[in-house]
What we know:
By secondary structure, the chain is an alpha+beta fold.
Amino acid sequence: MLEFNYVIGYADHDLFCDLAFGLPMLGWARHSPVLTQRISPDPVPLDRHDDNLQEHNEKIIQSLGPSKSPQQDAMAWDKCLIDFSSGGLVGPFYSFIAVCNLLGGFLPRLIRRFSILEQHGGAESASARVIDDCLMGGQNAFTATSACHRPCDLDMWCLLLRIAAEFFGDSLIGSTSDFKAAYRQITAAPEQARSFVVAMWDPVKGCVAYGIAVSQLFGSGSAPLNFSRFPAWCVYALGMAFGLLADHCVDDILFVEQMRTGMSAFSSWRRFAVCCGWDIPDKKSPPPSQRFRTLGAITNLTGFPSGPILLEPAEDRVAKILEELQDILRNRRLTPAAAGKVFGKMMFASSQYFMKYGRCMLRAFSRRQ
C-alpha cells in the first residue's frame, strides 16, 4: 500500500505509518489533510482518568446481564468470539483482577458492550450488532478530532450517476462493496490498549467477560474518522489507477461504470482489495448490475440512456413502514419513541420524492416525539 500510495500521490502522507503503528483513540486523533476540516472541542485532560473510577466500574459491571432475548444474547456473544479469534480483542478474561495484573497494575475505565437487533440492506433475518459504549465509559470525553469524514449520501450518489451519464452517454452498470467488520480491520495505538477494556455478558458461562481492545471500537469517538481515512484512500486509488468513478459511505464502496467495462472495473477493485489485505466478503460484494441496492434505496439504470436513471424505494422498507403505520391506526396509540422511529424511516423515503415539503408534512411525528 505504501508503494501504491507513492505512485498515486495521495495527500494523506502519514496514512500507512499510522496503520502500522496504530491510530490513537484517546487525545487528539491523527490529522487527515484530505477529509473535511473541522476542529472539535479540546479533549478532557488524561490526568482526569481516575475521576470516580471505582464507582464507574462497579456501575458498568452491575449493568451487564442477560437480556430479555436469549437468542440476541447468543448472537452478540458469537460476535464477541469472532473479535477474540481474529485478534481485535485480547481475551476473554473472567477476572477483573487478572486483567489489571496483566496491565501492570493499571486500573482501567471499563467500557460496556451491548447489542442491538438490526435488519437492513435487504437482509433475510435480523442480526445483533455489538456496540462498545465509550460515551458511557467516558473515553470519548478524552478524544478530539481536527477533521471529519463526509459519507456518501443519496444526493452525492445521484451527482455521481449524472457525471457518469454525461461522460459515458451509454448504458451504465454499478455495484456496492463492503468492508467486513470494518473498524476491526484498523489497528489501535497499542500504548492506549489498557484504557480500552471492554466488559460484556457471556451467556454460556453466565457471567461478565473482559477483553482488551487492540483495534478500533464501534462506539469510540475517533474510530469513524480513523477508519474512514482508508476507504477514502481506496476511492482515490480506484480513480487514479483504474479511472473508476466511486465513493464510500464509511465501510461501503459504491461505483458506477459503463456497461462494456463494468466487469473489468469490478475485478480491478476486488483484486486491488486482495493485494491490500482488506477483508471484502463475496456475499456483500455482488457483481455489478443495472438494478442494485445503494444506501437503502434501489438504483435503477435499466432505462438509461433512452430514459432517466431512477432512484426507487426498497420494497422491504416500504412494506415495513406501511406495517408500522397500520399498527398505529389499529391500536390508536403512538408513543413518543415510536413516533421518532417512524419519523426517521419516513424521512428517508420522503426526502427522495418530496424534499422539504415532505419534511414539513412529517413534522407532526417529530412534535409527538
